[in-house]
Amino acid sequence: MSNFEFDRLKDRLLEHLKQVVRDRSPGFSSAGHFFVSHYIQQELSQWGAVEPFHFTAQGQQHTNWILNLPGTAPTRPPILIGAHYDTVPGCPWADDNGTGIAALLEIARAIKDAPARSPVRLVAFDLEEYGLAGSRAYAQHLHHQGETLRLMLSLEMLGYCNSSPNSQRYPSEALQKIYPTQGNFIALIGQWQTIPAMMRLWWSFRTAGVRSQWLPVIDQGRIVPDTRRSDHTPFWDLGYPAIMVTDTADLRNPHYHQPTDKLETLDLDFLTYVCQGLMRGIKAL
Prior knowledge:
eight-stranded mixed beta sheet, alpha/beta, single chain, 285 residues
């Protein structure tokens, strides 16, 4: 990707973030929630027919938005790429998870322009912050239908970077001894069966210019509960291969679930490199 293309991608990511970074929890900021839901639907609809997946949680109907894009090998099972668009009350939703949604929208553009080998299914999940309700309902639907997936990728906070010493924490002392102490990498967390895919993504991130680390888990991540805190978890629990792509949330970002999770706290170059790496990696899977 040339400097010109990099700058254009960065500008588009910024424009998405300007639209979606706002208080928009479903229960307390319904107007903001509706606006962002509509924005996602509108942006994805540029590239194909967007399907709603309705589900009920706490007596209310909510919606995941789905866009299916064909691959050059159409008989392959699809790669599902998901990011959640809800937030907790009082949080502007910049890194969590405006960055994931911005990347999802730009991945849709890239795959439409240059299809991957596998079909790609992009899903904007609602109610991740409320018990993973949207992804859980959709994973159960796929399982009930007997549908297979080549891979599920959960985009969970992609834009916070800190190169200072000891800026990165870990949920266990063992991990602290193995992995870097600088929070300037993107993490890949998946079942041991997804190691080949994590290695391909690791290489794609490196060639895009961003550091990456990967962590295989067993027993659906229950030994390290922090690995189960996003929309990949319902897919893990139903036996689907899934990887969380993350800047590690509160293990690095001090603005996690705080009113200070604002656009100006993000590293847009880091986010752009991550998005570029995802685009390359998805086409290689």
